[in-house]
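Table S2 (text version). Query chain:
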Amino acid sequence: MTMHSETEKTSCCGPTCCSDENEVQSHAITEDELKDSIRAKYGQIAEAAGSCCGPNCGCGSETDEQVLNVMMNDKYASVDQQIIDAADLGLGCGTPTAFADMEEGMRVLDLGSGAGIDVFLAAKAVGPTGKAIGLDMTDEMLKRARANKAKLGITNAEFWKGEIEDMPVESDSIDRIISNCVINLVPDKRKAFSEMFRVLKSGGRFTISDIVSIGQIPADVRKDLELWAGCVAGALDKEEYLQIVRDAGFTNLKLEKEKSFSLEKNMSFGIESITLTADKCPPSVKGQ
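Corresponding structure-token output:
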């Protein structure tokens, strides 16, 4: 199977892209196994020059070679080229900052911040009176992001270590949440969206670019650690994804952008990138 999209980019992280985790597991993957695998994969990417999220890197199982033959990332438009050169590893599947409605003085939280590109764009948008915070669980990514921050001379950005299902962030402290192709990697998506709702201020909003499936992904794909790291195996059916967001308490859901990838060889599911916004609305005032 080959996936095709309107955006193509040739990149790979070379020999470090391949690992012993490419094989399909014969047992159900535990959350710890999954997080360890993803942390190792993205640690390798952080230490290399390219990306393995998308096109097949010439390694992996037969299923990997079919599914990973696509580059999911969108190009950033009208963005400082210095930021692109320093921090765009080609790991995203959208441009959430373009839809995030950020204003001067806001506190913005980027979930799965990687090398920092969306954090740096948010920092510019909120200005010196605001703050952009990147949250990531991978030490190598945090190291690279902090080095990029110093290189770019950005002073209103910080990078914190943590997991999305249990954020080291105060409740009701964030104006905007952004995330780019990361929530699909999280094992417990209900908990992730519940945490987002907790940390957002009343009236706050999230803007997330992510991968969803059209139809249910087969069990053998779900067991493939390489396809988890490749932003495929962890994708939920789009309608299930949106319902989880509603169940967490969010309102005013809006699909800002959708992009489908065509699959060949009669696969039983499809893959689509979406950019979704939703609000944490203030509590209703009695009598109004």
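Notes on Table S2: The domain at 27-279 is CATH 3.40.50.150 (Rossmann fold). The first strand starts at residue 107 and ends at 111.
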